[in-house]
Design brief:
The protein is α/β, with parallel strands linked by helices. It has 25 helices and 19 strands. It folds into four domains: 115 residues, Beta-Lactamase (2-Layer Sandwich), CATH 3.30.450.20; 95 residues, PAS domain (Beta-Lactamase), CATH 3.30.450; 171 residues, Rossmann fold, CATH 3.40.50; 137 residues, Orthogonal Bundle (Helicase, Ruva Protein, domain 3), CATH 1.10.8.60. Strands 2-1-5-4-3 form a five-stranded antiparallel beta sheet. A five-stranded antiparallel beta sheet has the order 7-6-10-9-8. The protein has a five-stranded parallel beta sheet with strand order 12-13-16-11-17. A hairpin with a 4-residue loop joins strand 3 and strand 4. Helix 12 packs parallel to helix 13 and helix 24 packs across helix 25. The structure holds adenosine-5'-triphosphate. It holds the Pfam family PAS_4.
Length: 592
């Protein structure tokens, strides 16, 4: 190997021994874009053309190892004859190069090595991008194939391009049997009965379908994919099998229904216990429903209108609502609007200021509204409230203020109103006796308390309860004979529970023996007759005068209320005051 060859000598050579001028030779090697670099057998650079110099600097006449230490080992290997052609990647100043090292022979003798540099940055970038896109495609494939939702992809002509394994499973088809086929053919071949893809291609918009297929429930969403020109290129259909979700949902609903049932049962038991504690007897569905409504509304602030005949327990409902409300430790003031003389009602309800009228207390007086502040005002027999007081009550219900008689200063009171009546308020409104606006304000939550006739199931428990209760009260022991009990059960109790209570007390007090028999029952009850006054001559001799008076009074009132529609008329006809009538009707469990 000639190692003494120097750069100047080499430049003097030409291929085939033909002599070329340095200038010609240099112009030729500098003209090409590929880099050419030659070293002698010692590794000294003997040629570096323009392309190499531009990329690696001017280093002719130096040792290759000093300028391209990465390249030198390959070249050295080549010079030692270990390989014919060797390729290596080399980093230049700005770009990367792929360098091919070839032996340089002169007369069969190796005189050095020549390196050809081809810029590789772009190629590498492209390779990298290819790799990136291949990775992305693999990733997408994995995602598509592992999705538990079915994916069905078609081109703009409705040809199936791809389906994933979930879609194969959901549609019970194999990809190889459908990919490449047109959706229209698949519909014609009855593989499917409906195609979301065709819908999308027809409408150009997203389509949602709920489908039943092979007993499974599917939600299908098909969406168009557009190119930059706005043309549809693909339709992607995703299918979700919601059969399981649907079943789970149904199971959940069943569980919730069972839970609700238990909760209602527990609530009912709690409520029954609550009612028992408060000595409320209720067995009939209608009564239980009304009581449940009352417990439900107890904790809201709304006005409640308790409706039902006299003596059914409307006052009891007011107690129940109060006890179970957030105002339980505040007063419950009960006013019977029919029992207060008309001339006094306004001052009783709203109070008066000093000097409001002759005979007024000198310091003025608060009314029931002020006394009930923070608590509940129960306006029983609300239908008897005179019209001027109705106006004042309406004002309170609208702005929460009242005005004492003789005062011009409104006072704010925090009072919840409960009202009750056995009268038909709607009819009274029609007759102009009750204000419509007040009626609407009052009946926010109406509760209808059924008469004893409407709750036969309650009758026996009520009779037994009150016989025992009065027996305990009067420190005695009493029980009903079978016949007496049957007769009582057949009696209509027009005065409802109040009449029943009165009768039970009377039987407990009046019956000599422990057993209350048929003979102990009052004649009208024994006959089941409630219509006519019983002649005093028919009363048993054992009755005292007060008892005879009481019975006669009751019978007379029962008779008179048939021809007198309201307490005021009745009072006038019988020559007593309205409050007296109100008191007596209440006492005998009667109403008009
Ligand atoms: N379900 C019941 N269980 C036990 N006692 C009851 C029941 N219902 C009513 N009572 C009793 O009957 C009596 C009359 O009830 P209440 O005064 O509440 O009737 P009312 O409908 O308000 O009558 P009115 O319309 O004449 O004011 C009360 O002593 C009450 O305790």
């Amino acid at each position: 190997m000639n190692t003494s060859l120097n750069p100047v000598e080499l430049i003097g050579f030409s291929s085939g021994g033909e002599l070329r001028s340095d200038a010609f030779y240099q112009a030729m090697v500098n003209a090409v874009d590929v880099g050419i670099l030659a070293v002698n057998t010692s590794g000294m650079v003997i040629l570096a053309n323009r392309a190499v110099r531009e990329s690696f600097g001017a280093f002719q006449g130096v040792h290759l190892n000093d300028v391209l230490p990465d390249l030198w080992p390959k070249v050295a290997q080549r010079l030692l004859g270990h390989a014919r052609n060797t390729e290596i990647s080399v980093r230049g100043i700005e770009s990367n190069f792929l360098v091919r090292v070839s032996p340089m022979l002169l007369d069969q003798e190796q005189v050095g090595a020549v390196c050809v540099f081809v810029e590789s940055t772009e190629l590498e970038e492209m390779a990298k991008q290819m790799e990136f896109y291949q990775g992305l495609t693999r990733e997408l494939d994995t995602i598509i194939d592992s999705s538990s939702d079915g994916l069905w992809i078609c081109d703009a002509d409705a040809n199936v391009v791809r389906i994933n394994p979930a879609s194969e499973r959901i549609n019970n088809v194999q990809a190889k049997d459908v990919v490449g086929r047109n959706m229209r053919d698949l519909i014609n071949a009855r593989v499917f009965d409906r195609s979301a893809t065709l819908e999308v291609l027809r409408t150009g918009t997203r389509v949602n379908l709920l489908q039943q297929r092979e007993g499974r429930k599917l939600i299908t969403t098909a969406a168009p994919v557009f190119d930059s020109a706005g043309r549809i290129t693909r339709v992607v259909v995703s299918e979700r099998d919601i059969t399981e979700i649907d079943n789970l949902q149904r199971e959940l609903e069943d569980q919730e229904a069972i839970r609700d049932q238990y909760r209602n049962q527990m609530l009912e038991m709690q409520q029954e216990q609550q009612l028992e504690n408060q000595q409320i007897i209720a067995r009939s569905p209608a009564m239980l429903k009304a009581l449940r409504q009352a417990l439900k509304v107890a904790n809201v602030e709304s006005t409640v209108l308790i409706l039902g005949p006299s003596g059914v327990g409307k006052g009891l409902f007011a107690d129940l609502i109060h006890k179970n409300s957030e105002r339980a430790n505040k007063p419950l003031i009960k006013i019977n609007c029919g029992a207060i003389p008309e001339s006094l009602i306004e001052s009783e309800l709203f109070g008066y200021d000093k000097g409001a009228f002759t005979g007024a207390q000198s310091g003025g007086k608060p009314g029931y509204f002020e006394l009930a502040d923070g608590g509940i005002l129960f306006l029983d027999e609300i239908a008897e409230l005179p019209l001027p007081s109705q106006v004042k009550l309406l004002r309170f219900m609208e702005d929460g203020t009242i005005m004492r008689l003789g005062s011009t200063r409104p006072r704010e009171v925090k009072v919840r109103i409960l009202a009750a009546t056995h009268r038909n308020l709607e009819q009274m409104v029609e007759e102009g006796k009750f204000r419509l606006d007040l009626y609407y304000r009052l009946k926010v939550i109406p509760i209808h308390v059924p008469s004893l006739k409407e709750r036969k199931e309650c009758l026996l428990p009520l009779i037994l309860h009150y016989i025992e209760w009065y027996a305990k009260k009067h420190k005695t022991s009493k029980r009903l004979s079978r016949a007496a009990c049957d007769t009582l059960l057949g009696y209509p109790f027009p005065g409802n529970v109040r009449e029943l209570m009165n009768l039970c007390e009377r039987l407990v007090v009046m019956t000599e023996s422990e057993v209350i028999s048929l003979q102990d029952l009052p004649a009208d009850v024994a006959k089941g007759d409630t219509s006519e006054a019983t002649a005093p001559a028919q009363w048993p001799e054992s009755m005292t005068l007060p008892q005879v008076i009481e019975s006669t009074e009751r019978a007379l009132l029962a008779h008179a209320i048939k021809s007198h529609g309201c307490q005021a008329d009745l009072a006038e006809a019988l020559g007593v005051s309205q409050p007296t009538i109100a008191r007596k009707l209440k006492r005998y469990g009667l109403a008009c």
